Amino acid sequence: MSSNYILGNRVDSLTLAAAVARVASFIAAGSPHHIVTMNAEIAYLAYKDPGLQAVINRAHMVTADGSGVVWAARKLGTPLPERVTGIDLVQALAAEGARRGWRFYLYGAAPGVAAAAAAKLQEEHPGLVIAGTTHGYLGPDAMPALLAEIKRARPHILLVGLGAPKQEYWIATHLEELQVPVAMGVGGSFDVLAGVVRRAPAWVQRLNLEWLYRVVKEPKRVKRALALPKFMLAVLHEARCRR
C-alpha cells in the first residue's frame, strides 16, 4: 500500500475494495488498528495542528474521504485511484462483515441515532452482528463505563461518530486499552444511515459537489466549508514549492 502526503498529512493510495481487504487483514491480525477517513476540512485542520497531524500520520490506514483530497493529490503529482468516503467504507464493511461474522459497535451521534443506524445496517445486510451502540453525548464521568462496555462487547470494528477531530483524538487515546482490531472515525455517517440527514443524490456526488449540497441543506456548516478554499490555496502553494 503506497502513501501520499498532502500538506504533511499521509493519505493511502486505495480503492474501496482495497480498503476493505486491508481492514480484513487488520481483523485477521487481531491487534488494534486506527483508520482515519480524511477529507479536506480535516486535512486543513491537521495542517494547522501538529498534534492532529501526528495522530493521522500514526494511523494504520488513511483514506481519501472526499473529492477535495483526490483533487489535492492530483495537483501535487501523486494521484489517488478514487475517493473512499467514510460512509461508503462503512457500507462495504457491513456487507463484508455480514458474510464473515464480524461484530460491530457504534458509538456517537445524538441519543437514538447510533441505534437507528445499526438497525438500518442490519436491515440492509442480513446477518450483520451489532455488538452494541452508545450515543455520543457522554461526559467524562461516563467514559470508564463506556470503555468497559466496549471491551465486554469485543467488537471487531468500532465505528466512532463524534465528529472530527474529536473522534480521531478519542480513538488515539483509547485504542490500546480497548484492543479493538479496527477503530474508525465516521463523522456524521450515523445521521445519514439513520435517515436523520439525507446524503446528496448520486448525480451530485458524481459532480464532486456533495460538500455544497450539505451546506445548502445545513447552513450552519458554512463556517466549516470556509476551510475548503483555504485548503485549496495551501495545496496550490505546496504544488508550486514542489516544482
UniProtKB/TrEMBL annotation:
<keyword id="KW-0808">Transferase</keyword>
<dbReference type="GO" id="GO:0071555">
    <property type="term" value="P:cell wall organization"/>
</dbReference>
<dbReference type="Pfam" id="PF03808">
    <property type="entry name" value="Glyco_tran_WecG"/>
</dbReference>
<keyword id="KW-0328">Glycosyltransferase</keyword>
<comment type="function">
    <text>Catalyzes the conversion of GlcNAc-PP-undecaprenol into ManNAc-GlcNAc-PP-undecaprenol, the first committed lipid intermediate in the de novo synthesis of teichoic acid.</text>
</comment>
<keyword id="KW-0961">Cell wall biogenesis/degradation</keyword>
<dbReference type="InterPro" id="IPR004629">
    <property type="entry name" value="WecG_TagA_CpsF"/>
</dbReference>
<dbReference type="GO" id="GO:0019350">
    <property type="term" value="P:teichoic acid biosynthetic process"/>
</dbReference>
<dbReference type="GO" id="GO:0047244">
    <property type="term" value="F:N-acetylglucosaminyldiphosphoundecaprenol N-acetyl-beta-D-mannosaminyltransferase activity"/>
</dbReference>
<keyword id="KW-0777">Teichoic acid biosynthesis</keyword>
<comment type="pathway">
    <text>Cell wall biogenesis; teichoic acid biosynthesis.</text>
</comment>
<protein>
    <recommendedName>
        <fullName>N-acetylglucosaminyldiphosphoundecaprenol N-acetyl-beta-D-mannosaminyltransferase</fullName>
        <ecNumber>2.4.1.187</ecNumber>
    </recommendedName>
</protein>
<comment type="similarity">
    <text>Belongs to the glycosyltransferase 26 family. TagA/TarA subfamily.</text>
</comment>
<dbReference type="InterPro" id="IPR034714">
    <property type="entry name" value="TagA_TarA"/>
</dbReference>
